[in-house]
Amino acid sequence: MAPAKAVVADDHVAFPAGSKDTALTKIDMYGLEIWEGTLPLIDMGGLHGPRRSDTIKQLAHACQHYGGFMLKNHGISEKLLGDIMSTAREFFHLPEEERMKLYSPDPTSLIRLATGFKDDKQNVFVSRESLKFHAHPIEKYVNLWPTNPSSYREVVSEYCVAAKRAEITLLEALFEGLGMERKSIDQILDNHGQYASLNYYPTCDKSNLGLTFGLRGHTDPTIITMLLPDEVPGLEILKDGDWVPVKPIPNTLIVHVGDVLQGLSNCRYESLLHRVIVNSETERLSIASYCYPSNDTQMGPPKELIDDDNPLIYKDYTYEEFYTTMWKQRLPDAARLNAFKISAA
Ligand code: OGA
Ligand code: NI
Predict the structure, then answer these.
(1) Which CATH number characterizes residue 95's domain?
(2) By the 8 A CB rule, do 155 and 84 touch?
(3) What range(s) does the Fe2OG dioxygenase domain occupy (predicted)?
(4) Which long-range contacts (CB under 8 A, 24 or more apart) does 48-53 make?
(5) Residue of the nearest CA to atom 10 in ligand 1?
């Protein structure tokens, strides 16, 4: 089915017809290729050869000025991207009572189905249904995963391992781009975890479109989030005060800077505010891999990032403290980090 037109507002078209660039990317002042006026498009293949240091600079600019990027040549095969999407679609097309066997309201569950909900205070419906689960180390969790659809464990394992591999390569590059020492990088990457989510956004009745979101504006409480969207638009990022749709590119991932990376980088990188809108014609799916540190990881910025020009903003705190505080505060965005500011002490 064709992507729903209604979700792309005309005033967000970045490159007017007739401009020299009928291509959908444009080069910005840092030499980054910008996709439809939204996020830089980065070739991860560049990390594996003579272009490594240039690619690291591109990644650093992308995180600093855009809060994320689109990622091609990430090493996850086209077949696997197709397989995980089909498996997710099959799962969400199972009868409700089959899916609901995995329902849990407890956010600490090792696997749980979360359903859409009405926020009575704001009078909006948040329609995402998601299956969320821990995925690293995989042998610890795979036996908790569903066996319906029958491809689930094999395909989801394969995808999570491949996504994790790409994440580690990427994180090493991002940390290197910040100027972090090897010791600090290892401290964060040792024993870090992976939490994944299959996201399903059902179509929405036309008359309810104004009061329905797939997800409301938020930042992710992660180091980075790696998102595989299907071909249906819906993801929007806040850019210069406007919500701008990020049009999916086939076989290309979307990477967001999360709050943890904002904290670790002493605000050099800023986490990306994003939301999902729905449409009345086409369901939408996405697969998210959330990369987070182990509970006892110290999340204050490493000392090598601090100097007279970059005074320390955050004190030392563990990921566990961050996470516990987050659930108490129930804030949707990086304001969660304010509790850990030196000035808040
Ligand atoms: C998320 C998220 C966006 C999407 O899972 O945190 O923002 O497009 N997902 O599904
Ligand atoms: Ni998100």
Answers:
(1) 2.60.120.330
(2) yes
(3) 184-293
(4) 52/173
(5) 286
